[in-house]
Amino acid sequence: MADFSALAHLRQATKSWHQTIDHHPLLSPLVRPGLDLAGYGRALAALHGPISALEQRCLLG
Q1: Is the CB of residue 29 less than 8 Å from the CB of residue 39?
Q2: DSSP state, 32?
């Protein structure tokens, strides 16, 4: 079972980042109705670089 106080802390700590992502022109369609395949592809392409870099940093420690 999750530690809800830790979860609440994580949500609060990342709230502004999530709001920024929710309003990003390439990523905001992910949280709105009507997302088509092309829009989904653009969002994934926009996320690939940052996520890939983060994964590499996590793997390297």
Answers
A1: yes
A2: S
- Identity of residue 29: P
First CA to last CA across the chain, in angstroms?
Answer: 26
Distance of CA 36 to the CA centre of its chain: 18
pTM for the full predicted model: 0.56
- Euclidean distance between CA atoms 51 and 45, whole angstroms: 10
Residue 50: domain span: 4-60
Q: What is the pLDDT along the chain (61 residues), one digit of tens a residue?
A: 556 798 899 999 999 988 888 888 888 888 889 999 999 999 899 889 989 999 999 999 7
Q: In 3D, which of 11, 15, 31 has the Cα closest to residue 23?
A: 31
Task: Please give the tally of structural domains in the chain.
Answer: 1
